[in-house]
Request: fold
Amino acid sequence: MKGFGRNQELTLSQQLLFLKANPAVGGEGTVRANKLTWQVPIQPTALARSYLATITYRPDQTPDVQIDGPDLELLADGRPLPHVYRDPLRLCLYLPGTREWEGRKRIDQTVIPWTYLWLYYFEDWLWSDDWKGEGRHPGDEPESVGNRALRRAVARS
Reply:
C-alpha cells in the first residue's frame, strides 16, 4: 500500500487521517481535486491572539500556510512582514531543498508545529520589532568565509 514504506510519500488521505486523529491539532479539512485543505485555529501562547490558518497541500509540492485572520499586514502596521512569501501571502516555515519538509513526513507533526512557532515569533516581533525566529530565504546565501576574511584584512590595512 502506498505511503507505508519509509521512503514513500504519504497520500493526501493518509495526511488527512493523521490530521484528524491527532488530538493536539484540532481543525477540519477535506481532500478534493487532488488537494488537501486543512483549517486550524492557532493560539501560539495563552496570552497571544488566536489565528485561523489554512494549510493547502498537493502531492509533489510543499504545503502552503496562509493566515486567514486576523490580517497579518494590518497587525504589522505598515512594517514589512518577516519570513513570508508573497502573491499570495504565505508563511515561510522552512528552507526548501533542505529536506526539512518531504512528502513522507506528516503535516500534523511538522507544518502545524512550525506554524505555531512562526506565530509565536510573529507575536514577539509585533512588540519588539526584532525577528528572533532566525531562518533564511532561498537566495539569501550566507557569506563565504573567504570573502569575510578578505574584507576583514582589507579593513585592517
Observations:
- Residues 95 and 137 are 6 Å apart (CA to CA).
